[in-house]
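G., before I forget:
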Amino acid sequence: MITEEIIASLTDDNRNLIQDVHALVESYPHVPITVDCVIFGFDNNELKVLLIRSDIEMYRGKWSLLGDFAHDDEELDGAAYRVLHERTGMDDVFLEQVKTFSKPNRHPGGRVLTVAYCSLLNIEHHDLEITDNELHWHSIKNLCGMAFDHKEILDVCYAWLRKRMLEHPLGLNLLPEKFSLRELQNLYEVILDIKLDRRNFRKKFFSMDFLIDTGEYEDDVPHRPGRLYRFDFNKYEHNKRRWTGIEF
Amino acid sequence: MITEEIIASLTDDNRNLIQDVHALVESYPHVPITVDCVIFGFDNNELKVLLIRSDIEMYRGKWSLLGDFAHDDEELDGAAYRVLHERTGMDDVFLEQVKTFSKPNRHPGGRVLTVAYCSLLNIEHHDLEITDNELHWHSIKNLCGMAFDHKEILDVCYAWLRKRMLEHPLGLNLLPEKFSLRELQNLYEVILDIKLDRRNFRKKFFSMDFLIDTGEYEDDVPHRPGRLYRFDFNKYEHNKRRWTGIEF
DNA sequence: GCAAAAGTGTTGTCCTTACACCCATGC
DNA sequence: GCATGGGTGTAAGGACAACACTTTTGC
């Protein structure tokens, strides 16, 4: 019987294989790596992103994403969660790698590679107790004067969000646990920058059958209060295969 | 008038800003970076991927993706194009970043971060003149015994391809310039692992209006030859906004 | 003439869209 | 009672799925 091993020994015999993998890896150029988190929130009918003032002199006054270098032997997902946790105190939030940025001159201090992560969280769950470096929610609009290539990263992540929201009910991570259909619709309308028919929107989401009626109603609204719903993430995860996305 | 600058000076005055950005960057852990290219081809009604034998002793006989470390001051896209060019001699091919892999133990020689790129090319345009390390097209099926985490990378890229093919006519990069509708349908059927109705498939693609009838016909087929078409990438790029994707 | 696949049209179903009226609440 | 937005149903149109027959070529 001819196994992979035998084939390998036949074909490899006259090649010089690398023995010392550590020396090999040492010989590669080494590059500093950071993660940058684009943390989206939704508040007051606006999409917002969590920013700080850059603490680098040459970017004085400019806005910066939340980032940090990757620790030794730290996986990047872990690094992104760490940044998120250190800044917001939150743990079990949505987080996804989006893209790696590598322009050689993107950092004034020399080559630094950064991996952008997107996170979505409910602004109400979080009080921003630590507001070092003017950590704050900044409207996604009118964002100019950002440090590094952070504007570009933000643009890519925002485009990613819009696209991803159509194929996955991501956006629900931006809402409180209980929400009205109006809030849900506002979310889609604002982020995707479209107008939707209220009745058809309603039908679409009810037909998906992932909304649980809490039996509760809105409060403090100057009109008839709407029902509050929860999203059944478990049911969604379970029936995921049959989810074909949202289209407007 | 209150400018960003004035605000900055007010808010930043009592902070210690970092002056020496080079020292900052030097203080970060430095990590070796590689790119790995998942180069897809389509031949004989099979999806294939370009592989070599690993040249690392401990992976003797195992298959490996085409990769290389990133040169100093080389953008990653550039590194991926370089790998592609060195191995296939091709320049103007589709290439897209997919994901960055960072498990600390993914490389036996120590921590190495790799950025996976996907490329699609027409197998016929390329003769694989350089076949060092047994460079060859390997069927996407029955892939076991791969070096590093390359099986995982391949799986992620294959999933990416299937998803991306539904929202963008990527797949056409895998076909020769002139192709029959049967070849196009085979491509979709094989990659997405579905059966499609020939007549509806035809209608769908014609209605998109991106196919140009070359007036030529297939040759060397043991049955009635089909018309050959070209894809109008320019027209597609121009009308992109109205493209809503493909759904089956 | 037989096998094999190309090429074409129609019909029913379902999903999407557009749209109008009544209802509950705050003021 | 009036303004505001919540809640519901329906009809028309468009897209998609299912499906059968004729045509052209190689052998």
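Residues 197, 199-200, 203-204, 221-225, 247 of chain A lie near DNA strand C (CB under 10 Å from a C1'). The mean pLDDT of chain A is 90.

More on Monday.
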